[in-house]
Amino acid sequence: MKNEIVLYQVTQAKIYRSVASSTAIETGKPVQEIERQLKQNRILAKSVGLASKSSDPI
């Protein structure tokens, strides 16, 4: 028997589907609806900048 190494490629689409299907099981909502919400939230999050560390003490 020959040992074969199978490489799996994790893509953004697979992560979305995994999170959406898991959430769908917990919430009872359709997977497609949750995927759409995840993608929309990602687009919105890109438009928000991160706070930068200021040199002024609080």
Structural account:
The chain is built from two helices and no strands. The protein is flat. Helix 1 packs across helix 2 (31-46). It has helices at residues 12-27, 31-46.
Cα-based radius of gyration, to the nearest Å: 19 Å
Secondary structure category: mainly alpha
Largest sheet: none
Name the helix and strand elements from N-terminus to C-terminus, one letter apiece: HH
What percentage of the residues does DSSP assign to strands (E)?
under 5%
The end-to-end span amounts to: 66 Å
Topology readout:
Layout: H1 12-27, H2 31-46
Helix pairs in contact: 1-2
Question: In summary, what is this structure?
Answer:
It is built from two helices and no strands. It has helices at residues 12-27, 31-46.
What are the defining features of this structure?
single chain, 58 residues, mainly alpha, 55% helix, 0% strand
